[in-house]
Amino acid sequence: MPVLIERSRDAHDVVCGGFMGPDAITLLKRLRVDPALLGARPITRVRLIAGERIVETELPFRGAGLSRRTLDAALIEQAIAEGATIERGVTVRHADPDNYCLHLGDGAVLGGDALFLATGKHEVRGLARPSSAMPADPALGLRIGLDASPALTAALGGVVELHLFRGGYAGLLLQEDGRANLCLSVAQSRLAEAGGQPDGLIGALSREAPLLADRLWAAGGRDPWSSVARIPYGWRQPEGRPNIYRLGDQGAVIGSLVGDGIAMALSGAMHAVSSHFRDGAEASGNWQRDFYRRTARPVRTASALKAIAERPWAASLMLSVLRLSPALLRWAARATRIGN
Prior knowledge:
alpha+beta
């Protein structure tokens, strides 16, 4: 029987853009979780903004905006319905990959025949990613929930906005509860320039990304900022260990501006479970290598787009090209999908 160890006691928002493409929606439906029934907002267009330049075009698919609070609650509810045991409010102190067990915060030790590591961008002692995975100036993620004003609701109807600026970018969309979700990826050094404060960063961006600043300050109310540090974008795990499965961001970290992280996590997890029950102890090595290959194109494409987005001159040139040929943006959206 599977046992899920969850650090939080209740569903909560995490640093995530909240955008889902059709592959993620399809995979969720296979798990009997329908985003539409959860109130997900349909998204059919993308709007790119770099300074005063704006390019908007139809997406080559129908996406959705859904908060992680709602999505995670639905997934855990479905896992319980399928027979999984959920241990909430439990902290993992470190993992023992040789004996397939976890040492918990209360001193207990929990073992099994395999470990499925799904801790996102957070490391676990004993199974941490190599130090070489971290770039010299790593990115960090920032998220804030906004009470959408009537003007903001009208501006974001059916659209996901991507705001590009030096050293980072931001995504903005409406989610199922009518609020707006703003998520930024920014170089650690860029936040340090702003005194380490998110509001200071937004103030510094008022010239580079004036529309982003306007969107934030025009909100009716807002949550506190949440963050996650030291994100190794572009990293992929090439090899596996017996009965150890590195899922989602633990297996491959895709640039979050493309919104495919949820699909990669779901697809990888479903393949991993099938492989484990079909092939046993030797499955993990083959599965991890296959996941490494499957994520190569979307992760590399997203990394290239991220590098362009974070350089103002390159972003400005890109938007000039996209204005003439919006089909290139639709191609990029397809190229970063992992599929089912």
